[in-house]
Prior knowledge:
- The chain is an alpha+beta fold and 276 residues long.
- Helices cover 23% and strands 26% of the residues.
- The chain is elongated.
- InterPro entries: SseB_N.
Amino acid sequence: xxxxxxxxxxxxxxxxxxxxxxxxxxxxxxxxxxxxxxxxxxxxxxxxxxxxxxxxxxxxxxxxxxxxxxxxxxxxxxxxxxxxxxxxxxxxxxxxxxxxxxxxxxxxxxxxxxxxxxxxxxxxxxxxxxxxxxxxxxxxxxxxxxxxxxxxxxxxxxxxxxxxxxxxxxxxxxxxxxxxxxxxxxxxxxxxxxxxxxxxxxxxxxxxxxxxxxxxxxxxxxxxxxxxxxxxxxxxxxxxxxxxxxxxxxxxxxxxxxxxxxxxxxxxxxxxxxxx
Length: 276
């Protein structure tokens, strides 16, 4: 082996993409695409557009992996750069596919389901691919729901839940609610002290966590990609927690669920003013 050859992680995206394309390694191209910045045709005033091509009875959004490849595969015109995640976050129609590097020797066509799964895979597939990794999810608890939750035996969760890792960078509760598309529910979710409460637990039985592909597997907020799942009466596992996120972005675990005895154990008492 050539000692001067750089590690794969140090190679420019263009080189890795070209090698994968020329060798027909579609899996490598999909992995690269997930974190890629893409060239997107823009209108003459610089605004983002959704350029479409029709093929096989389907509409395809056309993007390129470099300005040079766009010049080779599309009429000359203005363009701007957007990440793959940004595109999917604002995807206007779940029936549209994605055409990458159309008009070049190595185009890549992604069916709508593939576009969604590339950013938000089925949770069961993710867990199977990384069996040693623990996935945590969370759900905002309404103020009126805190007391009933803490008195619930054999606790279960239903409704929409989010991938906790996708929200680690979110600080203030108001910003969290914006990321979840729930800013209009502030009165029901934010305490007088400016806190929100989160039910957070490690996933067991990943097949019970459904994904809404019409929403591209993401929550309704459009400030950051947040993977979202639908559950119905999922039993909370041992170690699930009730966490307070205060107005400064600091977290305090208020209670921990003891699945062996089917009850919650308080770690920091919930002030009476925050109970229903």
